[in-house]
Amino acid sequence: MSRYTKLKSYKGIKKDNSNGRYLAVKYINKKEYSKKFDSLRDAINWRASFHPSLAPEVLENSLKDSNHIFSNKPQVKLNGEDLGYYFNDVWKMYKELYLPSLEKSSQEHRLAKESFLGPLMSHKMVEMTANLIDVHVAKQKNVASKINGRRHSFDDDLKVLKAILNWYRQNYDPLFMNPVLPRHKTAGIIKPNKRKNKKMKPEEVIAFFNQLELFWRDFAETQFYMAARVSEVAGMQVSSVDFFEKIITVSHVAVWDRVSKQFSYLKEFPKNGEERYVFMNERLADIMNRRIPNSKNGYVFHQSGDPLRYKQIQYQYNSALKRAGLFPEYSSTHIMRHSMGTITRRVTGSLDATQAVTGHKDIRMAQHYASLPSEANKHAVTEVQKFMFDLEENTKIADS
């Protein structure tokens, strides 16, 4: 008599006639894998879930969840192939295998979303459907609405969740469909986000400059003529300034802590990952000649040798805007970049010149491989300086 009896209703499972246990057998890439179980239920679930690439704890979680095979609950359409992973497993793998490849501030940004992701951790990946995200967003929105905080939406949280799920799909289960949809972004809106005006008129820019002490005026004008992000000016190194070629290279960026806004570290590439080059007009040259002899630790702008804190800059900008009568219509630190772009378009009448000044990656093809500022950048920066100088002189005459 044969030791094993094949169970016709359950492929790959045999019953051991000597002890009543069940032998589950599975072939993957022509290699045989097998394991014995005391219950038929566990044997069936092992065949459905086992894969040699799965960590033992992941497989164990799957076996614990075997009751759903025999339940009388209506079948819900699952998402992708059931590899036994829970979202918690994927989150751990994502943090261990992928996050270290990202820039430090990006790592911190994604780790900060753990509280939003928390309620999803106990769900299997095959349960991650659009309907589940509907319920999750609704619950998160309800909690946030009661707190009555500064949050406007869950857009950023959903972007991170979508990125994690895309990573899982690309690396583990190509049959998995990302369940984060545009409707979830709409559902996650808590209150309208009022758009602040960041595009100052030329005379308003001059009024703002005139309310700043010399150090901070130099900082603000540098940001303006470079159409730079405030972090790019705060992180500017002496080595980035080339007086011979009349170039400032935008490469180093100050990174501030997301909560305290204290200086965290110096990043060696800007937001889009590529250096860009700004023509140093006469005004920028004057500022650099004044600041570089007083530089410390490589920083053009600093406070007693220490990198600038974000709240320092924000306070100086907002205080000057208040004194100029421009607050609260304008506030914070991004106004210089927006204003330079708008005024460049007005002075030159050229969208190309505006694109060359702001250096947006998708609209400056001519500069993509350039080692020097484009002619459009040189022309724009020079023309705006002349325009602003003439306007300020005329204002002084009118006030005298």
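^ that was protein a. below is b, sequence first then the tokens
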Amino acid sequence: MGCQIGLTDGIVAYTGHGVQRTPAADAEAALALAPGSAGEALLAEVRRVVAASDTVEADWSEAVDGSLYPVFAERMLLLEPALDERALHALSWRWAYLQTF
């Protein structure tokens, strides 16, 4: 469980969710969460999960109440079942931005 909390924090820091106006790829923010090789391992895992999120496909015709978040979250959980709500929201925010712009 502690590892998953670290991953969530890493994803949120890396994407800048809740801090930045637009999604980022802030390796330094993720690295700052853990010292030395632990930070490098965290960053590698964050990048792996972010890359997996880039493979999610959804169309506006699938939106639920005008939102693609439920569709994204369901599909992302098929790829990474251990992700929590905070991680899913950060990844979805980044994904939606990249789909739009």
